[in-house]
Amino acid sequence: MCYQFHISGEEEIDYQEEFEAYPADGAYCLLLALRAIYGWSSTTPTPGFFGPKPPAQITIPSGPNNETTKIIWGGFKIPGLKGMLTTEVTGTTGGARFVLSGQNIRRKDLPDLERVSGALKGFLKTHSMYRGKALSLKVRPDASDLSESSPTFLALPDKDPALFYNAETRLQIEACILTPIRHMKSMKKLDMVVKRGILLEGSYGTGKTLCALKVARECVRRGWTFLYVTNVDMLSDVLEVATMYAPAVVFAEDVDQLLGTDDRTHEVNMILNALDSVGSKGQDLMVILTTNHLEKLNAALMRPGRIDTIVSIPLPDLGTIEQLLRYNCGTAISPRTDLKKIAEILEGEIPAVITEVCRTAKMFALSRHTEDEVLRLVQNKDALLVQENDLQEAAKYIRTARLKAASCKPKPETGPLQAYDAHMQKKFDLLEERSQAEMLDMEERLKTAIENH
Prior knowledge:
Helicase, Ruva Protein, domain 3; seven-stranded mixed β-sheet; single chain; 14 strands; elongated; alpha/beta; Rossmann fold; Alpha-D-Glucose-1,6-Bisphosphate, Chain A, domain 4; about 45% helix
């Protein structure tokens, strides 16, 4: 928008435009626009291009492997344009946007400024740092320190992580999560709604986080933006960011930390309103929430339109345990080895425990070899053979260790406050004992008086 002070082309105006981009991304694409228009190609701003004083530079993350890039931030000038331009942030939430403003801009220079604006918008569509990437948002943007408050890039595995769920869970994840990502355009042509709210529920360690990695890789492969929420209280902010980079998936873990209450607190209302807003805008967004405590979640969250599907991820069944054993043992175990007994021993355990059983079984197998044999095994890794007995012993060993750990009781705290509480409790106990003794004595005297009477 422009604020008019005079009429002629030489007169000055103030200029301000807000862009649908996260602040650091907007500044990055502004730099690309300036290079494209003015032919400036230096990696470091020079006094000659920006006037007598180059603008401040900020280093921000630009990739998952510690890659960085520099952006210009603050006030600066460009060739032939009178007045000062400034990069800014509008708003204070996670949905804050990039703003380009100008002071004392000549009206006749406005077409040049609009040319920069148009190029910036074009680069946001084609060269955005964030669109179609897997990102983690930890803190809200801080205009005074974008280097620390900008999103970071997730380092995804080279291959899809192996997910071991029962058949029903696999079907639900495939149909409700992966299918919309893979077939968004086809779904729209079939008048199907892409926007989904999904809750993954299950006990700790059943593989909900691994599901996030699988979804993130699928998003990047299909041009979706994946936003991982590390702090649940930022969920409403990240949903705003997602609308700028749709199609997108927002993945937030352990939402019961904030939504595990029946009270409609300010924070709870913010998240519920943000979920409603996403639905009303018809955005191509998928919100995936996880919880270890389904029973604790606020009932208002479960309304259709906020949560459309609940996918349960239970503990591995016997068939899934056998798959996990074979996967983690790899070539060290014969395809003919019967794993049913070992699976029965491990029934009720989480995948991490089953993985540890396989590691321990390999160590049992290695312990049977001499030092020279071990050296030969190093040269030929496929030669290590895990026997059924190794797995049985490892399974029993791990189960016994876990049972012992579960039986351990935490030591009581012995700080000054705890000591005071213990002292007062003793006094209350003594008072209660004395009161009971006095009451018994009174009853006995009353009984004697009645008998004598």
